Amino acid sequence: MTHPTVERADNLYQIRVDGEPAGLAEFRDRDAQRVFIHVEITEAFRGKGLSSVLIEHALTHTREEGKRIVPICPAVTRYLAKHDEFTDITDPVDRDVLTWLAAGQ
Question: Rounded to two decimals, what is the model's pTM?
Fold first, then answer.
């Protein structure tokens, strides 16, 4: 497996390996927050550490854009529990965010 690449497209970060789609991290922006709602790695690429590569890139990019992280997705929550370098820009999941998401924003 060569070095994976991560690109942003609309409300997704996509990870590719040798040009082949390997997974995605879906988010929605809410003012100064980036709400991460789903991370998925394609079955053929699971177990290779790609979710960590994808999430790290997405969170680093979120910091570079001056946004805060809201981890709805369990994979992002697990990543954050092991990587405290993002604690300063992480907001808790609260009722306002859940209501906003439920409204289809």
Answer: 0.94
